[in-house]
């Protein structure tokens, strides 16, 4: 049954935004950001901060984000908080209150104008608690989010568009958001008063990697070799690469569909599998055979989010579409080996099915919200993955050890 707050009520005066669900439910509000209409799956995010990072996370491609925190916009926007540039992220967002005016020393612009510049549609004034309740009870719906300053909407056409959209299950979005070319990553994590640390890919003594060229020198003054990580970009957040550099690696980023031969020509000491959007089974059609070959070679492998899911598929596990998914910066995860609880950041609508793990896969982390899988290790291999995002630092440093663990394998 449709929630009373999400019914097909007549358009109220002044409504310039609308969210139309595939079941015909309609929620009116005040549009901001870009004008037009976009279709996607509606999800909710429980984080109190980081709305700009959320909107630029490629893992949100094909999704409309409902922010459960009511006051969005107070820190403004800036170029440093972008998780990716010129890559599709969330198509739009829904907020409870009108966007708050910026009140932060790092702000370079208001959220409304940033949304418009980047082609993302927003709606304010919706009952986000009712929408979140709808998702929790009935699952994440397909919907169209629309903004027209004149308030002119063809509701039947929008309902039809929401119903015709096939949804994320079976959809490969990694190839849409992945970079097109190879990149030698430069730079490390952000520090107050400094910004992003300037860590070049290699010292002047070693060129950037080319086919047949191995690792770079240490750039932190230690004089030793930095292990070389080839990171496969399925829709990666830039901060992952910065954390790999902080942990001591040099990183070359390659597109999602890079062949195994090209990866090996770069002489990696380890391979990283990034986060990304869409159905892991669909992306796995081309990604899993590459990962399986890497496992056969006993190449050290570390996966996050979508990369974690595809590592599971490569090891013989299966993935499933979740009822509502996990998204936010406050998710408790239990580490099985010692019972330690990490406070984590999450963004996923699919998961490795921990009810059907093969004998070759060990479950290393579980969600304390619902018991779903949050980490695996492949037995007898130097390969592991986590469902959550250690680079998002929600703990704030609960999970950085994972980057150090991976780089420590690369001797």
Keywords:
about 400 residues; alpha/beta; ten-stranded mixed β-sheet; seven-stranded mixed β-barrel; 19 strands
Describe the model.
The chain has 411 residues and is an alpha/beta fold. It is built from 10 helices and 19 strands. Strands 8-12-11-13-14-19-18-17-15-16 form a 10-stranded mixed beta sheet, with helices on both faces. The chain has a 7-stranded mixed β-barrel with strand order 1-2-6-5-4-3-7. A hairpin with a 4-residue loop joins β1 (17-21) and β2. α8 (280-296) crosses α9. The radius of gyration is 21 Å and the shape is globular. The N and C termini lie far apart (58 Å). 50% of the residues are buried.
- Main sheet summary: 10 strands, mixed
Mean pLDDT: 92
Please bin the fraction of helical residues: 10-25%
What is the quaternary state of this protein?
single chain
Strand content: 25-35%
